[in-house]
Design a protein that fits this description.
Strand content of chain A: over 45%
Number of helices of chain B: 0
Oligomer: heterodimer
Structural class of chain A: mainly beta
Radius of gyration of chain B: 14 Å
Largest sheet of chain B: 6 strands, mixed
Strand content of chain B: over 45%
Helix content of chain A: under 10%
Distance between the termini of chain B: 41 Å
Order of helices and strands of chain B: EEEEEEEEEEEE
Distance between the termini of chain A: 35 Å
Number of strands of chain A: 11
Chain lengths: ~110, ~110
């Protein structure tokens, strides 16, 4: 089945630790995105990538890092510099045309303990 | 910069009644507008989109949306609501690849009561 897979579904992090969220797609999409969702704030863009080995900062990139070494994979690392990392993280992918919709993974809920 | 606004945090309707979830947009070019639905602890699912042409767009699960350029709106509608339509709805806009992201509204929680 084609789709976009995020793992893990739930993640707990101790303060001061880095954690990496996985996002894999088999849709052959060039563009991939990471969003953060907080209650009442909608989705805010963290990073996006239009092509392998290239990525751009979104509105709230501070404290996060990404890589795009393969077309299928776009992992997000939440570093210790992110002061308020508890949130629901969504990965998405799309074809590289402006009039196409994005496909979303099921999300990872990160909690700092 | 492009943006969308969803003026209502919450919409309540009775089952069988028509529903409307509002969205307005602000862009500097021609907008490409999208509606998504999110169920609890899940990702977003695409419902419908406006690209060009007919202002009334039909989508999944009986939903439709009307693009109104003069009012810069793209309201989501359904003639007869179901309890199972209860979810969080997001409007989104995309303009072009210079500003590559898809901008989302804050979301509207729809509750359909039996």
């Amino acid at each position: 089945d084609g789709g976009i897979t995020q793992s893990p579904k739930y993640l707990f992090r101790k303060e001061g630790q880095n954690v990496t969220l996985s996002c894999e797609q088999n849709l052959n999409h060039d563009a991939m995105y990471w969003y953060r969702q907080d209650p009442g704030q909608g989705l805010r863009l963290i990073y996006y990538s239009q092509i392998v080995n290239d990525f751009q900062k979104g509105d709230i990139a501070e404290g996060y890092s990404v890589s795009r070494e393969k077309k299928e994979s776009f992992p997000l690392t939440v570093t210790s510099a992110q002061k308020n990392p508890t949130a629901f993280y969504l990965c998405a992918s799309s074809i590289r045309t402006v009039n196409t919709e994005a496909f979303f993974g099921q999300g990872t809920r990160l909690t700092v303990v | 910069a492009q943006s969308v606004a969803q003026p209502e945090d919450q919409v309540n309707v009775a089952e069988g009644n028509p529903l409307t979830v509002k969205c307005t947009y602000s862009v500097s070019g021609n907008p490409y507008l999208f509606w998504y639905v999110q169920y609890p602890n899940r990702g977003l699912q695409f419902l419908l989109k406006y690209i060009t042409g007919d202002n009334l767009v039909k989508g999944s699960y009986g939903f439709e949306a009307e693009f109104n350029k003069s009012q810069t709106s793209f309201h989501l509608k359904k003639p007869s609501a179901l309890v199972s339509d209860s979810a969080l709805y997001f409007c989104a806009v995309r303009v072009g690849w210079e500003d590559n992201d898809m901008r989302f509204g804050a979301g509207t929680r729809l509750t359909v009561k039996p």
